[in-house]
Amino acid sequence: MAAAEPGPLRAFGGVQIGVQGGLELLEQAGTIVIPGWRDLAGDVSTALLDALSAANQRGCRIFTLCAGTFVLAATGLLAGKRATTHWHHHEALAKAYPGVRVEASVLYVDEGDILTSAGCASGLDACLHLIRRDFGPEAANRAARRMVTPPHRLGCQAQYLEQPVTARPGNSLAPLLDRLRASPTHGLDINQMARATHMSRRTFLRRFHDATGTTPAHWLLGVRLERAKALLETSALSVSLIAEQCGFGTAATLRHHFRNNLDSSPSDYRKQFGRREALTGAA
């Protein structure tokens, strides 16, 4: 761990962090993580900006968490690039650095040698994305299992804002969600789901949104896309068969949702993340 000033450093909550050295350590780094920043309006030292710029010029990857994006923006390396930060700060980032293309709703942005993430939890999403990029889907999945977190979350920052937690265990949605995950090919009938949870349709939709931050249709779409991605990564099944097994019906429908939600195609996704055996014989 490197710091631009002598440690120990003080973080939120009274936590103190020890450091191993100064900015000279950045000269040896292949990936630099900027975990945050204490003051959005504060100046970043010239020495730190120069060290980050020099590291990037020699090919070092730079990755920011939350307000750490402001430090990277101050170097000028984000000019003309897409970037994100915590939803609470995206307007300040856009105002302070108008040359940055601020993505206000995404969990993280990958611009090749520069990655930015929205907050602490989405920083985990970005870390798993880097593991997947560097070492493949199996390594990312193993890391996710150890952290007890999904290997990839489909969605945006908006679904995590001001979502109340239900306090009614008698009306838990967990059994229903488990059944939907287990059988994503089943059709979506709101009235049947409401009856299964002993709620009216209106109450069910409200409670579902409170629990998941989205609608049943969009939540199930995410489940189906996750299943399709897993099959593309680990199997040699054709796109048509994967579409059928995941509840999309046709390959054209699967491609449509991949394009709209992942800005990719099933074939391109398989080429990028699939295991070698998944690429053999795949259509």
Outline type: globular
Biggest sheet record = 4 strands, mixed
By DSSP (H or I, 4+ residues per run), the number of helices equals 13
Number of domains: 2
SS class: alpha/beta
Q: If you compute it from the alpha carbons, what radius of gyration comes out, rounded to the nearest whole angstrom?
A: 22 Å
CATH H level of the largest domain: which superfamily?
Class I glutamine amidotransferase (GATase) domain
Topology as H/E string?
EEEHEHEHEEEHHHHHHHHHH
Give the terminus-to-terminus CA distance: 46 Å
Poorly predicted tracts of residues = 157-170
Total beta strands = 8
Question: Oligomeric state of the chains?
Answer: single chain
CATH architecture group name of the largest domain: 3-Layer(aba) Sandwich
- Mean pLDDT across the residues is 82
CATH class descriptor of the largest domain: Alpha Beta
Furnish the topology, listing elements before pairings.
Layout (H helix, E strand, L loop, with lengths): L8 E2 L5 E2 L13 E4 L11 H12 L3 E4 L3 H8 L6 E2 L6 H7 L4 E2 L5 E3 L3 E4 L2 H16 L1 H11 L26 H9 L7 H7 L4 H12 L3 H19 L4 H7 L5 H12 L3 H8 L2 H4 L4
Parallel strand pairs: 3-4, 4-8, 5-6
Antiparallel strand pairs: 1-2, 7-8
